[in-house]
Amino acid sequence: MSVVGIGTDIVSVQRMADLLLRHGPRFLDRCFRPGDLLVPEARNDPEPNHLAGRWAAKEAFLKALGADVRGIPYRDIEVRRSPAGPVRIVLHGKALAAVKRVGGQRVHLAISHEREYAVAMVLVEN
User: Fold this and answer.
1) Could you tell me if 67 and 21 are in contact, meaning their C-beta atoms sit under 8 angstroms apart?
2) Model confidence at 60: pLDDT above 70
3) Strand arrangement, sheet containing 3-12
4) Which pLDDT does position 66 carry in this prediction?
5) Which CATH number fits the domain that encloses residue 63?
6) DSSP E strand boundaries for the chain
7) How far apart are CA 87 and CA 45, in angstroms?
8) How many domains does the chain have?
9) Domain range holding 110?
10) Can you tell me the distance from the alpha carbon of 65 to that of 73, in angstroms, rounded to the nearest whole number?
11) How many whole angstroms separate alpha carbon 115 and alpha carbon 9?
């Protein structure tokens, strides 16, 4: 396998908190799927830190494509916790079509959190 693209992104947790405060459920519905929003049982709602990691992953994926990404909705890029624990990207619709166009077959994701920031790195392989 060879690398099609690598993308990285960093997101301020405060930015996510501001978006949630300003737009609430409308923002969540427009940009996230239910799988993106699943949180540990101890919490009821996704926290800004959780959302910042998901948002960074979506942006990093778009950068890893290295192609024209206009028209790919954020909802077509889902970040889900796998049964084994680590997060993974599940593609839908236009995002899935775009990765196939560039010859991508596997998408790898890493997310890391610090108090004020979340960072994600995505690697697309063919």
Assistant:
1) no
2) yes
3) 3-12, 117-125, 106-114
4) 83
5) 3.90.470.20
6) 3-12, 77-81, 87-91, 106-114, 117-125
7) 18
8) 1
9) 3-125
10) 14
11) 16
Three-state SS for 38-64 is CCCCCCCCCCHHHHHHHHHHHHHHHHH
- How is residue 20 written in tokens? 């949630």
**Token pair for residue 56?**
């960074």
- How far CA 103 is from CA of 1, 4, 47, 98, 124, in Å, comes to 11, 7, 35, 9, 9
C-beta separation of 4 from 103 below 8 A: yes
Question: Quick one: residue 92, left, alpha or beta (phi over 0 = left, psi -120 to 50 = alpha)?
Answer: beta
The conformation of residue 76, written as its DSSP 8-state character, comes to G
Residues 6+ positions from 64 with CB-CB distance below 8 Å: 4, 5, 6, 7, 107, 122, 123, 124
Two structure tokens written together for 23: 């737009």
- pLDDT category at 54 given cuts 50, 70, 90 is very high
Q: Note the pTM of the prediction, 2 decimals.
A: 0.90
Write out the catalytic residue numbers: 63, 113
Residues 119, 8: contact at Cβ < 8 Å? yes
pLDDT tens sequence across 14-49: 999 999 999 988 999 999 998 888 765 545 556 899
